[in-house]
Amino acid sequence: MLIDRVASLGIVAPSKRTFQQVWEAYTTENEYGRKGHTIGYFTDEKKAKMAASKMGWYGSEGGICTRWALYQDDGWIIVEKPELVQLDVDMIKYKENAKKAALEKLTQEERVLLGLEK
């Protein structure tokens, strides 16, 4: 699921939409540290580490990682990929066309120097 609804992260609610980096604490399911269930989301790395303490495989340490949270209307939403995107655009074709246009601007000498031609 791209977005997980979060009821509260212990952050004072802003008056409008805003992003904030948070820490996710999670259990681990095996000796390799495979991510298990989310324990919670925290504004401080130390709090996340405390929550993940002894929550791993056979009582080992759980894991933590950073996430981005978006405040919207009545709560926080965890966003997997906080990046700007273009809607209704085939990004594969867009990148291919952009690459082709950039290569067309290169001189023969520049192509050889870049190893694109011999």
- Contiguous low-pLDDT stretches (5 residues minimum) are 1-9
Strand order of the largest sheet: 1-5-4-2-3
Reading the helices and strands in chain order gives EEEHEEHH
User: What structural class do helix, strand and pairing data support?
Assistant: alpha+beta
**Total number of beta strands:** 5
What is the typical, i.e. mean, pLDDT? 81
Structure notes:
The protein is α+β, with helices and mostly antiparallel strands. Strands 1-5-4-2-3 form a 5-stranded antiparallel β-sheet, covered by helices on one side. It starts with a strand and ends in a 5-residue tail after the last helix. The N terminus is likely disordered. It is 24% helix and 32% strand. The chain is elongated, with a radius of gyration of 22 Å. The protein contains 3 helices and 5 strands; from the N terminus they run E-E-E-H-E-E-H-H.
Which key terms come to mind for this protein?
single chain, alpha+beta, 32% strand
Summary of the model, kept short:
By secondary structure, the protein is an alpha+beta fold. The protein is built from three helices and five strands; from the N terminus they run βββαββαα. Strand 2 and strand 3 form a beta hairpin.
Please outline the helices and strands.
Layout: E1 3-6, E2 18-28, E3 35-42, H1 45-52, E4 63-72, E5 75-79, H2 91-104, H3 108-113
Antiparallel strand pairs: 1-5, 2-3, 2-4, 4-5
